[in-house]
Amino acid sequence: MPILSTLIRDISPPRLSKRRKLSQTSTIADRDSNATVSTKTDPALAAVEAGKAKIHDHLAYFKENLKEFSIETRDNCPRLSIQEFAELYERNQYDHGNHFVIHQHNHPRAGVHYDLRLQFSKSSSVSFAIPKGLPGNPNSKSKGRMAIETRVHNLWNHLIESASHKTGSLLIWDTGTYTVLPRKMPHHQKASQHTTDDDSSPDSDSNSTIKTFSNPSNPPPALKNGLPENEKLIHAFQTRYIRLRLHGTRLPKNYTITLRLPSANDFGKSTARRKRRQPAQRKQQRRRNDSTDSEPDSNANANSSRNANQTSAAARVDKEEEDIDTDEDEDTTTRLHNAYPGSTNSIGSIHQRQWFLLLDQRSSGFVLRKSGGLWERDGDGDGDGDGDGDGGFEPFVVRGREFERSVVTGRLAREVEGDEGVEGYVGRAGWIGIET
């Protein structure tokens, strides 16, 4: 069935398919010379991402798309095969899934940032935008990061790698499962021993953790405290403090962060658009309070006249806002509930709240040196007390769109843009990572 032109936004020319796999040094121009015009009748990727086109099986749709554009990379590039990626997602398609994804988002106005999305129900994920990406150096001079709440997303948004002129490019920087650790840790106990899941191996790597939940229709057994990870996340989110361990493909073993919402940022403002007619209403109220009852009939007529004039003025203001605001009805609903269509904001996320994000050095396997005040890798990284193993990890730096490849397809941001036919796209310049 042909797709209506109104459902497709900023995608020209059509996508190309059956590209041959290339090495890391391949260019988009080289791939274009070996491509053929696609004859598929599937909806455009950007239209699906924007919710303009509906599909029944998101996993099958995105799996096919990612497979089509997957390329070969060097051995030192962290990768998750398409099949492993699909199985990971499928295992978390149930009420207590604990899937996460980190998207590198090259947005035309906001610039490069990293979106951390955490599944909290069968259909929905809470989302944080991290402008500089996750911290990777326990001794960095810039230890903190800002993490800004955005809209609640659909779980299937975790599958997306796409690009358009309107939204820029999205690539999968990392993905896996998460564990919510206790808020307070006993001082006598090392952080590397703190994996609270009995159904996964303590301090297991990403692959063994991913393979824990083998059947999405058969939820995992109850944990020690009787709560699955997604319910721990909901509780921690609502208490404004989250100690989060991410079991990913790119991120190192036992990588743990804390997210804290300062009380000054804990606002509950409505996401509905404020009407500009409110000052007129207050002025009208003051006039009514100052009026006398000596001429009730004339006052009633005057008030009726003022109400009619106010209604007319409000209608003109609303019309002006409609002329400026290009959002459709569903976008108004999105603002009101802070959730994209298909998702549910049952966790209580509020748009644009600013959280404070830190690397949790102890939980990540580092110990504080007695002299010098520097963090160093713990010699008992496996937490069994025998002194062997390597805790912590080698410091890493988030380097941005020119260097970092997708863990699923191996593509750079510009290659995602080229594959989606987004020619001539120029993202916002000036992004600088934190290297010290």
From TrEMBL:
InterPro entries: LigD_PE_domain. Residues 103-257 form the DNA ligase D 3'-phosphoesterase domain. Residues 186-227, 266-345 are annotated as: Disordered. Residues 271-286 have a biased composition (Basic residues). Residues 298-315 have a biased composition (Low complexity). Residues 320-331 have a biased composition (Acidic residues). Transmembrane segments: none annotated. Pfam families: LigD_N (PF13298). This is DNA ligase D 3'-phosphoesterase domain-containing protein. It comes from Lophiostoma macrostomum CBS 122681.
